[in-house]
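Ticket #4471: complex job returned nothing on first submit. Input attached below:
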Amino acid sequence: MNTAKKNEFLYFALKNWKLRIGFVVIGVFLILALIGPLLVRNDPFAYANPTGAKPPSSDYWFGTTFFGQDVFAQFVLGLRATFLVGILGGGLATLIGVVVGFTAGYRGGIVDEVLNMLTNIILVIPTMAVLLIIAAYLEVRSIFAECIFIGLTAWPWAARAIRAQTFSLRTRDFVDLAKTSGMSSFKIIFREIAPNMMAYLIMTFILQFGGAILNAATLDFIGLGPTNTISLGMMMQYAVMWGALLLGMWWWFIPPGLAITLIVGALYVMNVGMDEVFNPKLRET
Amino acid sequence: MSLQITDLKIYYQTLRGEVQALESTTFSMADGEIMGLAGESGCGKTTLGHSLIYMKPPMKYMGGQVLLDGEELPIWDMDRMNEFRFKKISIIPQYAMNAMNPTRKIGKMISELLGSRGVDFKAILPELERRLGLVKLSTSVLDMYPIELSGGMKQRMVMVLSTLLNPSLLIADEITSALDVASQKAVAEMLVEFRNQGYCKSAIVITHDISILYQIADSILIMYAGQLAEKASTETIIHAPRHPYTKLLISSLPEIGIKSTEKRLTGIPGNPPLLLNPPVGCRFRERCPVAFEKCTEAPPFIEVEPGHHIACWKEGETNA
Amino acid sequence: MLSLDRVTKVYRVGTFGGKELRAVNEVSFDIKEGEVTSLIGESGSGKSTIGKMILHLISISSGAIKFKGKDVSHLSGDALKEYYRNVQGVFQDPFSSYNPIFKADRVFTNVREEFFPDMQDAAWRDKVNSAIESVGMNPEHVLNKYPHQLSGGQLQRFLIARALLLDIHFLVADEIISMLDASTRIDVLNLLADLKLRGLAILFITHDLSLAHYISENAVILYRGCVAEMGATEKIFSHPIHPYTKMLMASVPRLDEKWKTGTTELTSKEIGTPEGCPYFDRCPVADKALGCDRFRPTLQELEPNHFVACYRYEKNG
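Support reply: We reran it on our side without changes. The output follows.
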């Protein structure tokens, strides 16, 4: 970014309330996920409270589950899982999207046609159905496996968008000039084209981040989540399974549900805010 | 007097401050005059042209008066200007060719446009067809989509459309720049013909191409960095300019017949000032070979000979 | 130094690539060292395509481009890099030629990384400074700035300086001054004239006849991908033969004389066949009896270094 422009972006970024709200919400949850374990007094899986379910109290901040497990301890661990899925799953999807999109957009021709076909095939496959089959097939499932499933299926739209942007950038004269400087295609893509799409790539990652969290929550909720840990989605699944809704144990399902809603919502609001910052036409005056 | 502008001042509001795009501008145009408006990019020619018809933000009206046929134009009021736009004052925008809705047939588009101005399409159709003939377009273009027309054809179409209600003043913004030489000549000559036929009383032709103006304009107004430099008859501007900027500008233009090996032309050293914080006084003084102390005051735009105005202390004084 | 031999570019268009569009059709001409050749044509005439083919930015469909006698039509890898050491280009839009998010000097850095990786910093700085000085600028004023802080004219000179860092013998100048203001464009044009005196061969691509006349020894008039007329600039301008060239000369706005009134031919009368003369449908002297509509006329040398492709002016009838 050149300095004048950078300052302009910064000015609008700080002025944009959507970005500010998004950052604050994500920041609060992130800090909680990071320092949470220091505040937790109980093993999330241990049956800490022998009397079973209890509403929130000074001992158990978010209360305890049907079995007397500490909801807050589970919540903190689940929050970590959620951020991990977002970063790894969303990151993997973004990475594949970037590689496919840049290659197809820059090379064009037959390479583009083949990659485009692949993109379209993945795009029309009912992702959730495939995830269900794969998840059901594996007996022991780790959170990393979940990240990889999500990453491998969520990239097509990112690839398409990046391909379109690359297409328009590669016809610019500075790309021709780089070619006549003898630069390799790889160098041209990452040193000349990609920096021009930084804003776009960041936004793509944010959307993929939110999408991965939502996908993971869905999988977890229908019981196909990781088998060796706890996530926010799984907390909700257990809560529903053991009748928390019927028994009025609101403290069991409200925190994870609200957290997922707020995180994903904040990410989308941030995305809209960023769009306004980078696209002058959308700026509020 | 067709158009009379007094002390018109237009700025642009930007994040970093006000861009002083057009400084107190005073000039007038005679009835039937085709005035060329020329200068380098950023000199304010487009700002001047557009401010007369469509002043939208970030353009900011800072003062001044515009009289068209003796009637004041409320150029600072976008709504009130609606009464005048298209009927009294009209524009052929720079990218007119791309301004047409690609999904509408041209005839339908025109009828909608006229409808929005309260004009009956049916009643005006015979006149429209006659004028299409004049620009050598067949009436069948009304049943075509914009994409079916070439660049030159679209430009002629827009020209007919924007003068359909016989406006008093037509503003043509770079209408020949994107065309090949044959279409360029045709469009330019048609503009003169339209004036002769009275389809527009007078016209301002904004362009960076002075050689086109030499072919069609009655007078030329040269602008530099938001200030008027010189206005005179076309012959005078081309063959006997008085303002130092005009002199240097005209002498830097290669004509057919000049070869670099025989006669080296020279440009004007330096660059135009930034208008965010322009120098006080004459804005050309930093590049001007004859500038002196007095040039730190803005020179007035005075008439040195009948019909010949310049804004220059040096040249103005020798006659005043 | 550089010669084009029946260079052709065909694009496949239409839904299934069934139609052929000949953007450049068997164009041949030579450019000698120390000479500027103007390639004159309207938009869509294929003039920029020829420039890009010479610069290896667009592939050639058929024909050959020879540089110093060697076929360079299908270079790749190190051989292509070596070619770029000798042949460089400057393009029309100075602002699009720079990556907007980096400083303008980056065009120099890229050249250094690729061609002079071992050069010491101080030596490189001297080299850059002398290149910038030779295009008439003060390095202190223009280095270390972003593209938007420089004017169009400065940016174009910068690109010429970039080319001079290499050992160039041939420069493709594609409409390099059409986006500059009148007061600065002539200086860039003069710069090309200086380079010519240093022995460079230059292909000056333009739509502006007066600029072409000012700078070039030879001119090639291109119409719809075909050469209509070519030869010494003097001869073409003082004595245009092809009906298209004549029309150009009559339509170009000049400062020394006004347009002759007379109708400009705009509407096409009759469409010829794709094999016919490309100018057939607009030509005022086209004659079916000569075969104008069916056969494309070839270039004939009517006088020394003056070629015309028109049946009306064939040597022997």
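The radius of gyration of chain C is 21 Å. Closing as resolved unless it happens again.
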